[in-house]
Fold this sequence. Notes:
rod-shaped; mainly alpha
Amino acid sequence: xxxxxxxxxxxxxxxxxxxxxxxxxxxxxxxxxxxxxxxxxxxxxxxxxxxxxxxxxxxxxxxxxxxxxxxxxxxxxxxxxxxxxxxxxxxxxxxxxxxxxxxxxxxxxxxxxxxxxxxxxxxxxxxxx
Length: 129
């Protein structure tokens, strides 16, 4: 005979596995500090690559002007401006990423605890039979 309670628990567990299960399990393999650092590092690398790509595109777009004015350009000011924007982007992302990924990790831990509680209940039900 079909036990409706078991079916409901198994359905809830399957939904958790299919929706957030992969991310939750991946996050649970790390300590919170390590997970946040890894995600922030990935973000910093992505921002760096994206920023370099944007600078390259701007340089290519303005190449005619840059070649014509190569002798008279103030490279120190341009470099300071470019590095300043990059530093601000990185600092903002590191703070926001640390907070955001910390909250995401905490959320995934709660989902994992809920998933584990469901597994324990299901395991007890099977032991009783």
